[in-house]
Write a structure and sequence with these properties.
The chain has 248 residues and is α/β, with parallel strands linked by helices. The chain is 45% helix and 18% strand. The protein starts with a strand and ends in an 8-residue tail after the last helix.
Length: 248
């Protein structure tokens, strides 16, 4: 949030990525936060530079693997022509040299598969003038603010069991003070909310406090690819950190 004269102002955001399902995902996350307004999207590095120069956004969420111009070079050019824009890299690149180079230009780095938990803390940190490094980039050279990351994979025998189990997980997390982001179809989202309310969870307040972010995802092959990508990366990250992975 930007504050001017004691009054909060909307943060104008440019989102840059060449994968359309990801752009929709980020858009759905930011859509419910009134302080954050997506003013434009770009799918390539040169387009990102052009829109940054033209619009002078407050915040740029920038991928690295972009066509026409990679994200790091785009960030260099953006920094020259739009110096007041905060740059937060959001990428699947995990190489330490790439992350170090990105952080020499931008204010933060979020691994895409960690975005559901880390994007909002990262945005808050970057807008406050700090530097954020994703928990997915753990290493001896990255000692900035991180978020504990744990991955689990569960399977359920039927839809009712899924809704009950998932609602219990969300309720337990909220009661512990944690924040929860869910991606589900609209019927599943409504079913989870109904079960949470029956358990006495104040869903409305949790959403208003941004501790519970229930996001809808459309059905379709592209959505399946995106979900598969996140699940595969979660399992890989868990194995690398010697965490238990359960697949039923």
């Amino acid at each position: 949030m930007i504050v001017s004269g004691g009054r909060s102002m909307v943060v104008r955001v440019l989102v840059v990525d060449d994968y359309q399902p990801w752009l929709r995902f980020i858009g759905s996350m930011l859509d419910g936060v009134w302080e954050l307004q997506v003013i434009a999207e770009a799918s390539g590095g040169r387009e990102a530079v052009q829109k940054a120069v033209q619009l002078q956004p407050d915040l740029i969420l920038l991928d690295i693997g972009l066509p026409t111009l990679d994200g790091i070079e785009a960030a260099r050019q953006i920094r020259e022509h739009s110096p007041d824009s905060k740059i937060l890299f959001v990428s699947e690149q995990r190489a330490k040299d790439v992350i170090s180079e990105a952080l020499s230009i931008g204010s933060g780095y979020v691994i895409k598969s960690c975005a559901p938990r880390e994007l909002f803390p990262a945005i808050k940190t970057v807008l406050a003038g700090g530097r954020f490094v994703s928990s997915g980039a753990n290493g001896p050279n990255f000692n900035d603010q991180t978020v504990e990351n744990r991955h689990e994979v569960n399977c359920f025998p039927d839809e009712a069991t899924f809704l009950d189990g998932f609602a219990r997980f969300v309720a337990t997390s909220l009661k512990k003070g944690s924040a929860v982001v869910t991606l589900s179809s609209e019927p599943h989202r409504l079913g989870i909310v109904q079960r949470l309310k029956s358990e006495g969870v104040d869903v409305t307040t949790a959403i208003e406090q941004q501790r519970y972010l229930p996001l809808d995802i459309p059905d379709g092959f592209q959505t399946f690819q995106f979900a598969e990508h996140l699940a595969t990366d979660a399992v890989k990250a868990a194995r690398e950190r010697n965490l238990r992975v359960g697949v039923g």
